[in-house]
Design a protein that fits this description.
Helices cover 27% and strands 33% of the residues. It is of the alpha+beta class and 81 residues long.
Amino acid sequence: MKKLELVFKSEDQKVKTLRLNYVSDKLDNETLQSAMNRIGALKMFKVNGMNQYQIPVAARYVNTNTETIFDTRNDDKQAIK
């Protein structure tokens, strides 16, 4: 599954990452920069009065793959029957 990570600097100059699932994998640079600028301008993510997502720094897609080594959950269900 692809996830989108939007990286910002907060008002107190700390790096903050907003991770989104279920996003289009066809978003381009201009679209993401525009959206990130709007998120920063809204100032709706504040902690202790500090805007957490103020300055857009980066955007990236992250692929996550799960490789199961073992899973006993189904064994428990079959034992109950």
